[in-house]
Amino acid sequence: MGFSERRAERHKRRHVREMLASARTVGADANVLGTPLVNGTDLEIGDRFQIISGHRLTTLGGPGRIRIGHGVFINAGVVVYSDVAITIEDDVALANEVYVMDTSSHGIEGREPYAAPVVIGAGTWVGARAIVLPGVTIGKRVVVGAGAVVTKDVPDEVLVAGNPARVIRPLTYPPHCQRAWHDIYCFCPGSLRNPLPQS
Ligand SMILES: CC(C)(COP(=O)(O)OP(=O)(O)OC[C@H]1O[C@@H](n2cnc3c(N)ncnc32)[C@H](O)[C@@H]1OP(=O)(O)O)[C@@H](O)C(=O)NCCC(=O)NCCS
Question: Is 106 known to be catalytic?
Answer without folding.
Answer: yes
